[in-house]
Amino acid sequence: MTDDLDSSGKGLGRRIDPGGIAARLATPTIGAILVVVIIGALVGGVAALSIRRQDGVYQSSEPLLIDQAGALAVAPNGDIVAKLALLRVKYVSVMQSADVLGKAAATAGVDIGTVAGAVSASAPPQSLIIQINARTKDPAVAPRIASATADALRDYLTNEQAAVPAANRITLTPLRNASAAVKVEPTSTRSLSNGLTAGLLAAAIAYLVLASVPPFGRRRRVTDASTVPGPTSTP
Asked: Which of 79, 120, 209, 234 has the fewest Cβ atoms within 10 angstroms?
């Protein structure tokens, strides 16, 4: 944008540069907007569907109750309960030992690496439960691993207390058999979220490209000789 001056030095006005920013702006047409929407929907749908078609991950669980029935029957106080609650942490760690994993693998009919990668355990607060979980891509294998790991942990505890009188032994009792495997991954929320993200990204890129390509984008028309009032200079 430049100022034109007459011979007296007075300003005639400001000339708009046709090669400026305004001339390079484009207004998308309705056709461009429709194409952007279609591209975003297609890309988002394909992304969501591809995630849903991934191999599923299935989980089975078996809860174990830690108990010391003999001691609790004689002295049912909070100290024993607190001790049992703390012992759960120990046995959650023991579950990952080679002894437990190896025996569980032999019982489940899989290799030890598969068991080590599949099992996990937790000790929910305000309870005496140890939750054994197994996640695999085969829904038939997950319950076998969960059950075999629970049995192997119980055997470990039994062997550890071989010299302890039966009445004073700590036990791990299954509250139920290993549950049927349920699909936990990928979730519908994850597929929808990823699909939406991919769709919005594709739509944004398509908008930027199509808005500048005729006939999808209309250039704003700017006249070379257009002038707007400008400041005048005093002699």
From this structure: 234
